[in-house]
Design brief:
Elements (H helix, E strand, L loop, with lengths): L2 E2 L13 E5 L4 H12 L3 E6 L2 H14 L4 E6 L5 H12 L7 E4 L18 H21 L6 E5 L22 H25 L5 E5 L7 H4 L4 H14 L3 H13 L8 E6 L4 E7 L9 H15 L7
Parallel strand pairs: 2-3, 2-5, 3-4, 5-6, 6-7, 7-8
Antiparallel strand pairs: 1-9, 8-9
Helix pairs in contact: 1-8, 3-4, 4-5, 4-9, 5-9
The protein binds NADP nicotinamide-adenine-dinucleotide phosphate (NAP).
The site of NADP nicotinamide-adenine-dinucleotide phosphate has 29 residues, from α1 and α6.
């Protein structure tokens, strides 16, 4: 595994760049927006809840007084909201240098559905980001050196794309559905890179994962005392939230990050560490036939088609 000595100090200036970060009000999305703003980017915080988005903007401005921030209302649990948010962004006619597909949710104990009827982890983590990427691609392609960054997870290694029950309708096992969604995030990021290269496009697609860190994703699940214990254990053993955001920031800004790369922390089985490096890609994530089938499934379910081969 190749370690890359890259820290926040190495992050290049982002002045003049426009970045769109999903789920920017919390966890790694917030940390990513903060650091991009600190380096001078105009950051669009794409959040489903206006007041949580505004609170995040206030918190960023408390640290970075001249931060260039915009709020976009984006509910990834609704394709109508994805289309409306993309339309709003495209209407600005601003080249989009960076899209960070960060937002996500993990393992609701019972099967839940998005407003389009998709199993909520597939719908939010995967389908909505697929649609958003396709819809925003015209703006992304207008930037000089654009990147699309997608957050996967160590959990992808346990994943399998179950085309017979991709929506977990026959059987819902929370972790299985989450692992499938994160495997899909990684496979689609790699497939996006292949399609961008085949299509002679300017954008590159880079994937990353944060290790494990005590964000709301992991600590807000279950009764309060379990959440408290989980937060304590995860804080003691795993990554910090700023440490977990480092692979995203590397993928988003480092000259060393390459299209088709997958980056994560290098300590304790990629769970933690402030050193970014190449992350382990599970063998099933490299199956190009499955990736092409997954892409077609996403196109069918979202009715968003792009970079067709
Ligand atoms: N934490 C970890 O250890 C870990 C490990 C591996 C991968 N990841 C990945 O890291 C990414 C970020 O998660 P996090 O750990 O930073 O968790 P987090 O603090 O819970 O942040 C998740 C963000 O996603 C947003 N979100 C959820 N559902 C949404 C929807 N329907 N529409 C729009 N936004 C939505 C949340 O908004 P609200 O605040 O409104 O809910 C929040 O801003 C996820 O993709 C996750 O899979 C996390």
């Amino acid at each position: 595994m190749a370690r890359i000595a890259w820290t926040l100090k190495d992050m290049p200036s982002q002045r003049g760049k426009r970045a769109y970060v999903t789920g920017a009000n919390s966890g790694f999305g917030y940390q990513t927006a903060l650091e991009l703003a600190r380096r001078g980017a105009t950051v669009v915080l794409a959040c489903r809840d206006a007041s949580r988005g505004q609170e995040a903007m206030r918190a960023i401005r408390a640290e970075v007084h001249d931060a260039l921030l915009e709020l976009a209302i984006l509910d990834l649990g609704s394709l109508a909201s994805v289309r409306a948010a993309a339309q709003e962004e495209l209407a600005k006619h601003a080249p989009l240098d960076l899209l960070v597909n960060n937002a996500g949710l993990m393992t609701p104990p019972t099967r839940q559905r998005t407003s389009d009827g998709f199993e909520v982890q597939l719908g939010t983590n995967v389908l909505a980001h697929f649609a958003l990427t396709g819809l925003l691609l015209p703006a992304i392609e207008r930037a000089p050196a654009p990147r699309v960054v997608t957050l996967a997870s160590i959990a992808h290694r346990q994943g399998r794309i179950d085309f017979d029950d991709v929506q977990s309708e026959k059987a819902y096992v929370p972790m299985r559905a989450y692992a499938q969604s994160k495997l899909a995030n990684l496979m689609l990021a790699l497939e996006l890179e292949r399609r961008l290269r085949r299509g002679g496009k300017r954008s590159v697609s880079v994937a990353c994962h944060p290790g494990v860190a005590p964000t709301n994703l992991l600590t807000n699940v279950g009764p309060k005392w379990i959440a408290f214990v989980r937060r304590w254990v995860i804080t003691a053993l795993s990554n910090s939230v700023p440490g977990g955001a480092l692979p995203t920031l590397f993928a988003a800004t480092a000259s060393e990050a390459r299209g088709g790369g997958y980056y994560g922390p290098q300590g304790l089985g990629e769970v933690r560490g402030n050193d970014v490096g190449e992350a382990t890609i599970a063998p099933q994530a490299t199956d190009e036939a499955i990736a092409a089938r997954l892409w077609a499934t996403c196109e069918e379910l979202t009715a968003v088609r792009f970079l067709d081969v």
